[in-house]
Write a structure and sequence with these properties.
The complex is a heterodimer of chains A (about 110) and B (about 120). Chain A has about 110 residues and is mainly β. Chain A contains no helices and 11 strands. In chain A, the strands form 2 sheets. In chain A, strands 2, 4, 5, 6, 9, 10 and 11 form a 7-stranded mixed β-sheet that branches. Chain A starts with a strand and ends with a strand. With about 120 residues, chain B is mainly β. Helix content of chain B is about 0%, strand content about 50%. In chain B, strands 2, 4, 5, 6, 9, 10 and 11 form a 7-stranded mixed β-sheet that branches. A 4-stranded antiparallel β-sheet of chain B has the order 1-3-8-7, with no helix packed on it. Classes of the chains: A mainly beta (about 110), B mainly beta (about 120). The interface between A and B is medium-sized, with 27 and 24 residues.
Chain lengths: ~110, ~120
């Protein structure tokens, strides 16, 4: 299985901050990487697909990047509604696997 | 706009079978070709369980493959999950989701909590 190692586990931030979350794949996954936001009691919401493509309707403050097997989700200008848990997922090789999650908390 | 809704028992006895159905509305199952189940134990991360193509071809997570069956009923616009020999470790919120052509799951159902307990 491809392991997705996500860091940090949690991050404390304030409204307006720039937040960066990283996912490292245990081997190459091309750009088959998605990012999700999950709020308490809700289903995950797709933010980014194909490593860098913004899902329709998602604010442009969310962006994704790739460097080798390292993937980054950046929130530029954190908004109150962005406090949530974020997951990465690879769909390059079966079984599809997720990162452990990063909780973005109020500082 | 496609919407998904899970249904099934919220409580299953140990060693029993967990059976869930995902109803697809707002579009044809053939329009989004791959349909998945994902679960999330309380307070934990996400685990992909299985997926099925609208024609019936399926893929499974090897960690669960011996206990899982996924099926599709296009006439009813729904797909289903059976997980047998359940234990407390199978207690989780179970989500159904659609796999987009460019990777990533969207949309998702709202999720249904299944508790395994006697």
């Amino acid at each position: 299985d491809i392991q997705m190692t996500q860091s940090p586990t949690s991050v404390s931030a304030s409204v307006g901050d720039r937040v960066t979350i990283t996912c490292r794949a245990s081997r190459g996954i091309s750009t088959w990487l998605a990012w999700y936001q999950q709020k308490s009691g809700k289903a995950p919401k797709l933010l980014i697909y194909d490593a860098t493509s913004l899902q329709s309707g998602v604010p442009s403050r969310f962006s994704g990047s790739k460097s080798g097997t390292d993937f980054t989700l950046t929130i530029s200008g954190l908004q109150p509604e962005d406090f949530a848990t974020y997951f990465c997922q690879q769909t390059n090789s079966f079984p599809w696997t997720f990162g452990q999650g990063t909780k973005v908390e109020v500082k | 706009q496609v919407q998904l809704q899970e249904s099934g028992p919220g409580l299953v006895k140990p060693s029993g079978t967990l059976s869930l159905t995902c109803a697809v509305s707002g579009g044809s199952m053939s329009s989004i070709k791959w349909w998945s189940w994902v679960r999330q134990p309380p307070g934990k991360g996400l685990e992909w369980i299985a997926e099925i193509y609208h024609s019936g071809t399926s893929n499974y997570n090897p960690s669960l493959e011996s206990r899982v069956t996924i099926s599709v009923d296009k006439s009813k616009n729904q797909f289903s999950l059976n997980l047998n020999s359940v234990t407390a470790a199978d207690t989780a919120v179970y989500y159904c989701a659609a796999y987009t052509p460019f990777g990533g799951f969207d949309p998702w159902g709202q999720g249904t909590l299944v508790t395994v307990s006697s």
